[in-house]
Amino acid sequence: MEINIVAGGPERYIPELNSYSGDEANWIGVDRGVYTLLEQKIEPHVAFGDFDSVNEKEWELIQQKVKEVNRFKPEKDETDLELALNWAIDQNPDKINIFGATGGRLDHFMGNLQLLMIPRLLDTDIKVEIIDVQNRLYLAESGVHSVEKSPELQYISFVPVTESVEGITLTGFKYPLNNRNISRGSTLCISNELIQSSGTFSFSNGILMVIRSSD
Predict the structure, then answer these.
(1) Which of 16, 175, 194, 214 is 20 to 30 A distant from 37 in Cα terms?
(2) Judging by beta carbons within 10 Å of its beta carbon (0-12, 13-18, 19+), is residue 188 exposed, middle or buried?
């Protein structure tokens, strides 16, 4: 099962969503992201938020179209997206895609990145990916990982999330590495490219953020 979450980020950063509507896809709307889904003719299964970013007419439409609406007070400890992500984790899906989490306010974007690192998510095998019109990013833990070349996402960057990442090896890349250690704050692995149809990255300890981007 795959769960797609649409948050309330600027719509210009959100791709055409119907291309992600597989047979097993379940849609969750978060705050204004609920209205974004409805505009793209997708009715979310569940909605979360304080809905302070929609007007009265939009709120009425959301109430009419969405069967389960979870409305919260603006004064709360979790962001709307965190509430939705926790619900999604409880469903134990194979994959969670998050849209509408980039662009706009930097504090919102940084907070959304932090959600990828919550302990209860790292303790599962659920892959979570943040997707916008120009980027896809996810976390990878130690081991060997394969990547396929994509004409739409030419660049691949590896950013250390933990204090250090040990034994990074990159094969099939324009700038290969062999058993290198990098620390948090390093830019060594920014903006690489595959020179083969596929490649691998591996490391022995730590957590990497993998970012695939286009110009």
Answers:
(1) 214
(2) middle
